[in-house]
Fold each of these.
Amino acid sequence: MTDAMSGPEFEQWFARILVASGFRDVTVCGGSDDRGADVLAIAPDGRRVVVRRKRQSISNRVGSAAIQRFAGTCRDIHGGEICMLVTNSFFTAGDGIQVARKLNITLVDRNALEMWAWTGRPAPGSIAGGGTP
């Protein structure tokens, strides 16, 4: 389903998932001057959420470089308390996932995204667990 969406459609779709999951003040802000933030929100527990989406082909995995770039803007530029990188694909095994853990970046891959969309709840250990994937 998400594979046929444009980037802006994917952002809007994910914003609706956040709203349905109890997030508030959900704002889509993606674009060429977004400074790495596609969606901003307030989590049910009151923390500021910054989302970067990576909509791409399923065979194109999100790597360590994208995670590092997002980590560089999420907290310092956008004031994120929960920094979430969401993809309709997957993340590279190894270094990317290790970097995300070290930098406390929540990773939401295709499988977790599908489960979240289906159940209306984020994957265990992501949001409620403090942002660690």
Note: Residues 7-20 form the longest helix (14 residues).
Amino acid sequence: MSTERLEKPVTYISVDIEAAGPSPSGYAMLSVGACVVDPVSTDAPDAEPGFYIELQPDREGAVDSAMSVGGFTLDGLRASGTAPAVAMRQFADWIEAVTPAGHRPVMVGFNAVFDWMFVADYFHRYLGRNPFGHSALDIKALYLGVTGSSWPGTSMNFVAERYGLSITLTHNALDDARDQAALFRAVRAERDARV
């Protein structure tokens, strides 16, 4: 591996998605939201522009519980959503715009494995490439490493409580991405304080 890739600075981007079911093989990604973890304005990180888009479904599978969480319907998104190829192009353009020259964008998620599989699948299927490359950083795993917690202790409620954060999942992908970014900053600060 080249040292250039190891030394390249990264821009952490918190990403959250809502989906019609448990995997992209049979279920559509319904919305995606993202924000930069370390915004320019540290006084009001939630005021920083983020990315949010709702997608037209490209599959017919739907799990009732998944649909009710976000308040979406497949018919509603067919009418109001953005075509997946257009949505993923807009998302890739946004990632490029918020990632400084010479930096590498790194996707961050809370239980990143779920969101990652949809994001990677959609980018490769509709754009032929993933701006994030082949990896993502999972906040739950980082938290385990920093705190030595148990897996059940990595629920969002437990992690938020540890850092005094008030988080209520709205299942709006941008809102949830911003909450994830706050969690990531808190875990990272604890890690850095120990070094």
Note: The CA atoms of residues 71 and 113 lie 23 Å apart.
Amino acid sequence: MTSIQELLTWDNPVFTAYVIAAAVTVLKIMGQGWMTVWRMMRSGRGLVSPEDAAKGPLNPSPDPAQLKIDDYVDRSRRMHRNDLENIPAFWVVGFLFVLVDPAPGLAQALFYGFLIARAGHFWAYATARSHEVRASFYTIGSLIVIWMGVQVLWVVLT
């Protein structure tokens, strides 16, 4: 049985792949927040709190209409919310998956497959593709996370 100290090293390709995937998804979540801010600033719409529509250096001409839902801004906000609903589960189960010492090729395929699925989901949502296209990418990522969770339980409970 491999020790935790041996599993959590850069010499372990499973751990390295997990760290890469986790870091990329952190950047995705943070970048999505900035994309939402950029869209609000660019359009001057889609603000969510009354104080956001107050006069200031970044909003010299406030208007109550700035607080109305704007799809251009809200689409980015929904993408951010979706990331926050899905990516943390990957972080947790991915780390636990590293600890059960899976085959490196399998782990890399799952970790990078999740990244590809999330990138596809981003593309489908950002470009307003059909729900079926977006849901297909979501399903792939979700099944990867579920499969890893089942595998972790299998190893721990058997």
Note: The CA atoms of residues 2 and 101 lie 8 Å apart.
Amino acid sequence: MSTARLLRLITRTGRVAEPLEPPADGAFVVRDGFDVPPALRGSAQVRHVDAGSCNGCEIEVGAAFGPVYDAERVGARLVASPRHADVVAVTGVVTQNMAEPLRNTVDATPNPRVVVSIGDCTRGCGLFAGSYAVAGSVDDVVQVDVHVPGCPPDPRAIVAALRAVTGR
């Protein structure tokens, strides 16, 4: 197939994507009194922080930003620096070694910012509760605005929470 023919085919077909499903009830929990800052409507840059997880949630975050669930189509994009981020997505319990780096990451993220905790371990420390290496849950270290429950959470729930932040 020639390049010109391929380009005509692409132009004629256009963008093909499945329509977004409405979020399921209980897909995410928003902190009482929290409203998404208007500056974040439309798109949000996301900095992911693994504070000490088993990597189950990381696999689901990777799937959420992969080609199947495609979080970028709702305006969420992963970035490498907290200085470029609007959203800090945290997974796992907060270990003793990650408490200060997590605070520094959140502090380095410019205001207005949203902190999203992903997974059950970010709330109650799950299986790791009471360990000598655990500083506590994410709520104990930084203020969480949106929580995505699940062990590990479904990628659709992660996309739904990011969709609530971007308003798309």
Note: Residues 63 and 83 are 24 Å apart (CA to CA).
